[in-house]
Write a structure and sequence with these properties.
By secondary structure, this protein is an alpha/beta fold. Helices cover about 45% and strands about 25% of the residues. The chain contains 14 helices and eleven strands. The strands form two sheets. It has a six-stranded mixed sheet, with helices on both faces. A five-stranded mixed sheet has the order 3-2-1-4-5, with helices on both faces.
């Protein structure tokens, strides 16, 4: 049995997937993820900061040990927004290689979107009807947000928006609990990006287009709706959230102080701050595009990278 390993070095979370690939389908062997906030402070300083650097290298050492224990020979690690933007990214990449043996490939927003689409499509092989539908796919990370227009088994367009939950939180959230002023600031940052996207993809979107969300914000919203005590990929994947449900969740989250939000079922304590810009972005996106429902995918970039190895 040949095993493959993919690593996603994101602005907020580091993830590892070890799997077997048969007929373009992934069979999970080992899945790990840890929040390290690697991208925190980049918007203000342009640099990776020491504490998240050390935390991330520590996690990557653990990933390297797991890869060795499973005797995986085919490994691919990609880095996204944080490493794309940081002036000291080269130093981090060199340290990771020296201390863990992991070679990092920095990918562009366009490449990130392509790999995300590949990963999502791999999960829809048992849902043939979905493959032929029209989708707007959103991958919201800590430092950037990738988007893909897909219809009739074709990628019509793709791109990257230079903002994400870490950047939005740092720019806009100043009070605890969140104030109306904070939400207004969030909307002032979010809405122009969404209007620009809507104008760009207008010809690719119609009344039959569905919205798919992948990555931490969307999977967390699914976990909150499902009231999960522990993260369960099989329950989260393809879970559906209505706009009205998201409004109810946001009303509850916005009313709570940060420490109280950490006790919400389904919400990991490490995401209790970033879920605020995440859910507000999601709601504004759905309102502007007139989507009444969000389909959550737990497949995306990590799975796309794994498939890209072969």
């Amino acid at each position: 049995m040949s095993l493959y390993a993919s690593i996603d070095i994101g602005s907020n979370t580091l993830r590892l997937l070890i799997g077997e690939i048969k007929d373009n389908r992934i069979y999970d062997i080992c899945y790990k993820r840890t929040i390290t906030r690697l991208g925190i402070g980049i918007l203000q300083t342009g640099r990776l900061h020491d504490t998240p650097i050390e935390a991330s290298i520590g996690v990557l050492r653990e990933f390297s040990s797991l890869i060795s224990s499973y005797h995986v020979k085919h490994v691919k690690a990609v880095a996204t927004s944080a490493i794309r933007e940081a002036s000291n990214a080269d130093i981090f990449i060199q340290r990771v290689l020296a201390e863990t043996g992991i070679s990092i490939q920095v990918i562009s927003g366009q490449q990130e979107a392509e790999l995300t689409l590949k990963g999502i499509l791999s999960s829809l092989t048992e849902h043939a009807a979905l493959i032929y539908q029209s989708f707007l796919i959103i991958d919201m990370g800590g430092g950037s947000t990738e988007w893909i227009c897909y219809k009739n088994k074709q990628c019509l367009d793709k791109g990257s928006i230079p903002t994400g939950v870490i950047k939005l939180y740092g720019q806009c959230i100043k009070t605890n609990p969140v104030s109306k002023t904070d939400i207004s600031k969030l909307n002032n940052e979010i809405v122009p990006h969404i209007h620009a996207l809507a104008k760009h993809v207008a010809r690719s979107i119609d009344t039959g287009t569905r919205l798919i969300g992948t990555a931490g914000t969307f999977t967390t919203l699914a976990a909150i709706d499902l009231e999960l005590d522990t993260y369960e990929r099989e329950k989260i994947h393809l879970h559906r959230l209505s706009l009205s449900t998201l409004h109810k969740i946001s009303h509850n989250l916005f009313s709570l102080a940060l420490e109280a939000r950490k006790n919400v079922r389904g919400l990991e304590p490490e995401r209790a701050d970033l879920i605020i810009p995440g859910i507000q972005f999601t709601i504004k996106l759905m309102e502007i595009f007139h989507f009444n429902e969000l389909i959550v995918s737990d497949y995306g970039l990590l799975e796309g990278v794994l498939l890209d190895i072969i």
